[in-house]
Amino acid sequence: MRLGANAPRLAVGLIRVSTAEQGNSGLGLEAQQASIRSFVAAQGWTMVAEYSDIASGKDDRRPGFQGALERCRQLGAVLVAARLDRITRRAHTLSQLLEDGVSIRAADMPGADDLMLRIYAAMAQKERELISERTRAALAAAKARGRVLGGDRGYRPAASPDAAAAAQARREAAERTAHRLGLEVDRLRAEGVEGHAALARALNARAVPAPRGSVAWTHTTVARVLARTRCIER
User: Which residues belong to the signal peptide in this entry (predicted)?
Assistant: First the structure.
């Protein structure tokens, strides 16, 4: 799908954090989301979808990443992230995406074109490789001096994990997910899609990831998301 010359540019946001702890806190996710939305608004583009992952940037099989790419290809949209490494940490992956015609932009480098993005990604990957080499060399030197590596270094929490706090974190994460998916459902309703079954078919057709790692949307999944969204709004 390609838009006419006078049509507004469409954008798909991609958010990624590296660990479950960062994902549950919401801090990294919310900061990236705000940065992406601000950048898209400044460009005068229209945000049509947002995807998120809690995974390493070295894993190109991430469901959010793949869903965002599919949506960009369907709509001819720009893939936007807060930083370039939120999309991928592999320079060759970025280069291949650009070669395939996927338009990519990073909110922290608003003036960067495709060539600059390639150069930045290659430099960032090289720096990570150098850091890894220096770390391995330092560990080998420490081992040669007889230092014991690994094991219990005394970094233990003073108290056992707080079950109530963990449950609250899970609830907050579920509410953030429901809110994000609720926005997607609202967009479909604005396009005239009504009914849980019809919404489920549309979400599957648009490759929107279902909550909790579900394989596909069903009318029951849609109903649960809408119910949770209504609870949040109260």
Answer: none
